[in-house]
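Entry 14. Structure prediction run on the chain below.
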Amino acid sequence: MPALPAALIARIERWPIAGAFTISRGAKTEAVVVVAEISRGGFTGRGECTPYGRYGETPEATLAAILTMQDRFAAGLDHRTLQALMPAGAARNALDCALLDLEAKTAGLRVWDLLKRPTPRACTTAYTISLGTPDAMAAATAKAAYRPLLKIKLGSDDDAARIKAVRKAAPESELVVDANEAWTPDNLERHLAACEAAGVTLVEQPLPAGHDAALATVRRPMAVCADESAHDLASIAGLRGRYDAVNIKLDKAGGLTEALAMADAAQALGLEIMVGCMVATSLSMAPAMLIAQQARFVDLDGPLLLARDRDGGLRYDESTVYPPDAAFWG
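Output returned:
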């Protein structure tokens, strides 16, 4: 029986960040997201994405890409056929998640049952410390030292001082660090040694994507995780020998459908999984909770960094994040 026609609308939203969020590429004070809503048969599914300039995306272009699919949805498109019609990226993510939400609601199922995945459980998420001077990062870390897992943004030649200051401020927390491609082959071993001395568990994307061959020959004293070096399912096999883990983000993968395939492929190759996010609302985090069930490292703290979250969003109890309610997503 053919699917009923669907109506698609989309919009750009701006959500203020509490303070500023700073990484090696710059700082921002608001999260700019694009929301897609697909309605069919009295039900509406929603998806949210965060266009990322690192990949040449803008909110306006992402919105336009989403709206070009209106006729396809009117003809009865589903989440499976969407994969062949759009490339991986933010626009497809919003549509994929909206379709899955809609399909679950239409079927009267939770999305994990629809996809034959385990029922998600609550997880411990990392909490991000923005890049700053060692003193500023130590002060921010001290306020968050009660959290069990901290993600530390690094990205310069003097990162050893930063990680030392952070560890002193949070002696009991597990630490992961993210250099956002800002280290070089010349300072890589020195920074990895500083992380080892501080008891860091994982280092994320230390070298620029496409220029990370040194990772195959250097001693890796802790897990090194690919982020910008891993986008979609096709990129997973090429990580072997250079990386020990992969950060799966729905905005890169182009939705939950591709992200789940990536997680399965990574596990089959013996790679650890990290599930990550952009700074965004709970509508972006909710689908990623399915990836979190396979992840050693969960980094879904986007809503915790906002001045306020979306009504009815995920429940956060300090660093514990709970799966979405059916009325919110999935």
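The chain has a mean pLDDT of 94.
Filed with the rest of this week's runs.
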